[in-house]
Amino acid sequence: MANIDVTPSKVMANLLHVLPTYADESENLINCIVEINSHTINKYELVTETGHLKLDRVGYSSLAYPFVYGALPQTWDDDGDPLDVEVVNVTEPLVPGSFAEVRIIGIMTFEDGGERDDKVIAVLNDDKRMDHINSIEDLGEHFEKETTYYWEHYKDLKKPGTCKVLGFYGVDKANEIIKECMERYDKEYRDKVK
After folding, report:
1. Residue 182: how many CB atoms within 10 A of its CB?
2. Do 56 and 44 form a contact (C-beta atoms < 8 A)?
3. Which residues are annotated as a binding site?
4. pLDDT tens for residues 65-124?
5. What is the C-alpha separation between 79 and 188, in angstroms, rounded?
6. Domain-by-domain residue ranges, the chain?
7. Which positions bind Mg(2+) 2 (predicted)?
8. Whole-structure pTM over 0.90, yes or no?
9. Which residues are known binding-site members for Mg(2+)?
């Protein structure tokens, strides 16, 4: 079975609160709960209290997600949601609501409407096509341009100029921000979980 250490139950566990953040910290492997596939303008989001997927909104433009998008369990970012994860170079669609072990290759720091809303950047751990990808630089120069363009323009028809990419950083910075978000989850959210 997968890497969940939970007693069997007749009710479905909320993965946001029972799945560990790291699948294997020494290998920079994290658990990503899939919310959105690439090539869609629909924004789905996990309901923190129940773990169900909800259609948050339909995008206002034709800009589609250029990557799989998900949430990192047992984390809490400055924007009041779990830390976001971009899973890049995925060749086949992933099932929203499932989770995957992904390998951290970096992080993009981001501001959305004045709030920090950083994005861990990762690749699927079990995809041998990704074994050579160990850093954002391995994705090539166009990756940063395309990702920056997407995030700085995806809300232009609704709230122009409200999103700003602050920078791209490596695995060490990603782990630092993940640990901060894990600590924030422990301080601000864990007591709400029953």
Report:
1. 20
2. yes
3. 43, 57, 69, 79, 84, 117, 154
4. 999 999 999 999 999 999 999 999 999 999 999 999 999 999 999 999 999 999 999 999
5. 12
6. 15-192
7. 84
8. yes
9. 79, 84, 117
- Known binding-site residues for substrate equal 43, 57, 69, 154
For residues 59 and 36, give the distance between their C-alpha atoms in angstroms, rounded to a whole number: 12
Contact 96, 35 (CB under 8 A): yes
Task: Give the CATH class of 15-192.
Answer: alpha beta
What span, in angstroms and rounded, lies between the C-alpha atoms of 181 and 194? 20
- As a whole number of Å, the end-to-end CA separation of the chain is 24
Comparing CA positions, the residue from 112, 43, 118, 115 lying closest to residue 75 is 118
Cα 152 to Cα 33: distance, rounded to the nearest angstrom: 24
Q: Which residues does 11 contact at the CB level (< 8 Å), separation at least 6?
A: none
**Helix, strand or coil, per DSSP, at residue 25:** helix
Using the Cα atoms of residue 127, residue 133, residue 139 and residue 144 in order, give the sign of their dihedral. positive
